[in-house]
Amino acid sequence: MKRLASRLNWFWRLLMTGLCFALFGIGGLLLSLVWFNLLLIAVRDKATRRRLARRSIAASFRLFLNTAKATGALDYRIHGVETLRHERGCLVVANHPTLIDYVLLASVMPETDCLVKSALLRNPFLGGVVKAADYLINSQADALLPTCEQRLQQGDTILIFPEGTRTRPGEAMTLQRGAANIAVRCGCDLRIVVIHCSEHLLDKHSRWYDVPPRKPMFTVEVRERVAIKQFFDAESQEPALAARQLNRHLLHQLTPGFAPF
């Protein structure tokens, strides 16, 4: 009887996972085709339009997560919501174990910026979201640093996953140096965020239908704010060396299993 109940629970979660991702895709299309176009027509000021678009994205992500939680497809906890919500003028750097890490963080950061891959512009479900939110594109090398500096100075937060792609289960984490370079060259602090999923779900080696035997629990832990002055002094250090040192610190902080003092 217990085995039958467990099997039925798994089958229910498989159905609800499929339903939730169908709703996610439909929601992304509706935002892109309807709501963002209405904003484009009705709101002439670009900054206001961008702010409304980002808040709409956050609200949509909260709806998705609450639906997934209510149906039993998954559960999640975010420790330090208020800290994230009130961050200003810094980079938020996080590890990247699953497909929905951005969704988890953006759901509670309604005005955050994000550094994304250029490939997302061609995604039929997320391309319109990226454009409407005016996210930073990692392929725009010449304009990236000046734009980051401008947005950070005006109080924006920029969400970055320094691995560049999802973590490969069983392999050592490696970080690209983009986040560290931006922090050093723009003189901004960094907020560390560590994401953990209790089961293998939506990771680099699994598809949405690879539902685990137990309901997955996503945990988001907001950790220290790293002051850039601890790693870089413009009068005595080379930016490249400071970026390497900072990147090593980030790797240590973001590696799963690391417990801060």
UniProtKB/TrEMBL annotation:
Record keywords, A-Z: Acyltransferase, Membrane, Transferase, Transmembrane, Transmembrane helix
GO molecular function, one term: 1-acylglycerol-3-phosphate O-acyltransferase activity
GO BP: phosphatidic acid biosynthetic process
Metabolic or biological pathway, per its Swiss-Prot or TrEMBL entry: Lipid metabolism
CDD domains listed in its UniProt record: LPLAT_AGPAT-like
Classification via PANTHER family: 1-ACYL-SN-GLYCEROL-3-PHOSPHATE ACYLTRANSFERASE (PTHR10434), PHOSPHOLIPID_GLYCEROL ACYLTRANSFERASE DOMAIN-CONTAINING PROTEIN (PTHR10434:SF66)
Keyword Transmembrane helix among record annotations: yes
Protein name: 1-acyl-sn-glycerol-3-phosphate acyltransferases
Keyword Hydrolase: no
SUPFAM superfamilies referenced in this protein's UniProt entry, alphabetically: Glycerol-3-phosphate (1)-acyltransferase
Annotated InterPro entries: Plipid/glycerol_acylTrfase (IPR002123)
Span of domain Phospholipid/glycerol acyltransferase: 90-200
Regions that span the bilayer: 12-43
Organism from which the protein derives: Kosakonia oryzendophytica
Pfam families per UniProt: Acyltransferase
